[in-house]
Design brief:
heterodimer; A: mainly beta; 7-stranded mixed beta sheet; 4-stranded antiparallel beta sheet; 11 strands; about 50% strand; globular; B: mainly beta; 6-stranded mixed beta sheet; 5-stranded antiparallel beta sheet; about 0% helix
Chain lengths: ~110, ~110
């Protein structure tokens, strides 16, 4: 099992450009989420999905879009990049039911917007 | 207010010592309290978790102490080792889906 994979590892964008951060998991997890991590602020939830075709906003959704067409994939789209979106982005997945709530994180994408 | 306040921001402990990181929460509906460990350049990984029906959970050198009345929980790392140097996050949730995260503690274990 590859677990949770994210691409790219690093990305530099100019202000106003758009891009898609890819996330995939091979554990058949129902729940997937996107976080951004900024120094001193912990992890902040951007968007999440409880299953294919179902997405919802988290704490900081502005400027980002998501879709969930399959169980495995959960891409994050930056519509028009801004310097405030410079951050490290993590995708995570977990089982949606049962007693196990462990979230499995990908290795992250470090994004710089100039 | 759904917040989890974590302290200290950073912590330096001598090898063999006890590392203690504290978290406080406000929402009494929280029913799941995990700690995640993150090494540089990696994503966080679950270290240990507790539910409010127990006051303590121990896994090897790692212990969570939970005080329901004070709405506080803490992570204790016994016999701290240089390999424990990492950033530690506490979190809390009601449904097991949307975790509310603390700001993180950068722990450095000096050899």
């Amino acid at each position: 099992n590859a677990g949770v994979t994210q691409t790219p590892k690093f990305q530099v964008l100019k202000t106003g450009q758009s891009m898609t951060l890819q996330c995939a998991q091979d554990m058949n997890h129902e729940y997937m989420s996107w976080y951004r991590q900024d120094p001193g602020m912990g992890l902040r939830l951007i968007h999440y999905s409880v299953g294919a075709g179902i997405t919802d906003q988290g704490e900081v959704p502005n400027g980002y879009n998501v879709s969930r067409s399959t169980t495995e994939d959960f891409p994050l789209r930056l519509l028009s990049a801004a310097p405030s979106q410079t951050s490290v982005y993590f995708c995570a997945s977990s089982y949606g039911t049962g007693s196990s709530y462990e979230q499995y994180f990908g290795p992250g994408t470090r994004l710089t917007v100039t | 207010q759904q917040q989890v306040k974590q302290s200290p921001q950073s912590l330096i402990v001598q090898k063999g010592g006890i590392s203690i990181i504290n978290c406080a929460y406000e929402n009494t509906a929280f029913d799941y309290f995990p700690w995640y460990q993150q090494f540089p350049g990696k994503g966080p990984a679950l270290l240990i978790a507790i539910r409010p029906d127990v006051s303590e959970k121990k896994e090897g050198r790692f212990t969570i102490s939970f005080n329901k009345s004070a709405k506080q929980f803490s992570l204790h790392i016994m016999d701290s080792q240089p390999g424990d140097s990492a950033t530690y996050f506490c979190a809390a949730s009601t449904l097991g889906y949307q975790l509310i995260w603390g700001a993180g503690t950068k722990l450095i274990i000096k050899p």
